Amino acid sequence: xxxxxxxxxxxxEHLLKYTKRxxxxxxxxxxxxxxxxxxxxxxxxxxxxxLSAAFTTLDSYDSPDTITKAVxxxxxxxxxxxxxxxxxxxxxxxxxxxxADGLTYTVRLKKGVQFHDGTEFDAEAVKLNFDxxxxxxxxxxxxxxxxxxxxxxxxxxxxxxxxxxxPHGGFIRRLAMNNTMMVCPSLIKAAGGxxxxxALKSCGTGPYIQEEFNPxxxxxxKKNPNYRxxxxxxxxxxxxxxxxENSTRAAMIRTGEADFITTVPLEQIKSLEADxxxxxxxxxxxxxxxxDLNNFFKPFSDKRVRQAINYAINKDALVKV
Length: 321
What we know:
By secondary structure, the protein is of the alpha+beta class. 23% of the residues lie in helices and 24% in strands. It has a 5-stranded mixed β-sheet, with helices on one face. Strands 1, 2, 3 and 15 form a 4-stranded antiparallel β-sheet that branches. The chain has a 4-stranded antiparallel β-sheet with strand order 7-8-10-9, with helices on one face.
């Protein structure tokens, strides 16, 4: 699931401002839309979000799942993000220049941004984050996404320069992805290069600060009083909880136990739309679901196995549901 396929914190706060209810979510792959259904608890200062999967790690450079990375954006921000049309736009960056040969990107950073530990966000912090993920023995699962970066150099306090091994038209989009979050240098250094040190703890520049995290139970964040954007965040806090059972999540949005849920069981969308206490809205999505087969290993190296899997999948049924 990509950035467009998950309700972001800015969306949450937009709904809280303009409706009297909070929302339920579904990623409807077949129709390429998100379904939002609003429930009567919108004015709450601390909301609860029920998720369809348990958490993995708060380290976005090591997290294999999109849900954990999406909720971690409560505490983390990247140099760029995506707008509503999925175009990359500056977030912690002010802008960038690209060299004529496409190999060098010079990124200018916002000034006056503070990490949660009170230290200033600057070019040294950016370099430290990328040096960590680019280290060959880092063991980080997302490292392969950035291996086309050759060097990261500090030009001055608020300017960092990326030199690529070869031109990459999607470089700025890579920087806008959920993986590329800016972690406090103090936390990186305290971890001593051990990725486990960032799995349960977080420290970023985001609108919320971690209060509690248990991967199988909940992720609780509270308002960052020093957030750089005036008027944000609007909430005092958010509690994210994994609720794996579809029907339980659907029941929680109806009873008010949860203010947002993701995903909504597709078979229950019509009943949610019929509920006068809920507002259901469809939002365009670019979500994809796909099956990857590694042809270099058995049994997938056998063409007949790959064909059998292809024949076994009922594509008409998938399209319908």
